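User: Fold this; tokens only.

Assistant: Input:
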Amino acid sequence: MTRRSFTGIGLSGDALQILELARQFAEERLAPTAGTRDRDEEHFDTEVHRELAELGFLGMRVPEEYDGLGLDLLTYLYVLEELAWGDAGVAVSVSVHNSLPVSLLVLNGTEAQKRRWLPPMARGEALAAFSLSEAGAGSDAASLRTQATRDGEDWVLDGEKMWVTNGASADLILLFARTDDPGDRRGNRGIGAFVVPTDTPGLRAGKKERKMGQRGSETVSVVLDGVRLGPEHLLGEPGQGFAYALAALEGGRLGIAAQALGIASSALDHALRYAAEREQFGHPLRDYQGMEFKLADMSIELEAARGLLERAARAAMVGDRRARRLSSAAKLAASEAAMRVSREAVQVHGGYGYSREYPVERLFRDAKVTEIYEGANEIHRVIVARQLYREGGDET
């Protein structure tokens, strides 16, 4: 097995128990049923999410005073890697719920907002989604057009959001809309963050996307038609939502990196097993030097990306000024490692790797989107370069 060793990483006994529980759940519950969720993409597996909630995995980043586990960032990322080893689609649903809405509420919510939303999220009574992107606002998220208009003390939201993970099954969506006036646009300083219960009149989930991979996760559009919200649903200042989103996405990128590592680890495990069992010309495939080189390179890429993710997580935990650059670098490196390792795992399997008979075909499809969501890798290369300029004192 190529999964992470839990010894010698300096975690508490409680953290190690949580990691062992995540590994067991991934092995016994997620991996055996991942293929079913992939084939039945129209069905969202609410039962597996109920079980995750019972085990505390929907409250990993919620502070203990709000009924969560209050895990540190590194332990949380280790858990995500384990869950993604079992099923990347389930892992991304858990990641979106834990990292983005939770962090936004913890960092920017009032005490009343935290008391209202965080405990049910931690207990799994309220599944959360995050909604920033729109049809014309992906990498350029600040160009979103969904409008929030003041009406007395209330806000009225109109527009359509895209690529909302958990969107049709969520109980609340952390959603971004323009709070500036259409005649006086203020760019990224004219966007607000709203906590939107999904049973609010005027909100409905649109079509479910039919995706290449990670079909076990639910991705939909969300339509807002006169959605009226009281002032208690606005998070923080009405023009600071985009800044809040960027800060939350730094942590979200680390979660996607951990997910990508889980995919890569699973793909390498399948490749090692097949190379030991499959014989050609009277010898197992792994006896041939060409195969040894391939498997070694896959392992090296996986471990290198793991090391970068750990460095990025530790930088984020201590407030290192390099954290933004490292989070982008870790997401980029891990996602590209997942693509290369899963591609090579298909190659190890030969013709069988192209067949749905073996899980590597699904893992290859699951890996691709990790290079796209939470910021396309081309954007992360720009972020890394520009952060380098800033760290060197060049603010231009």
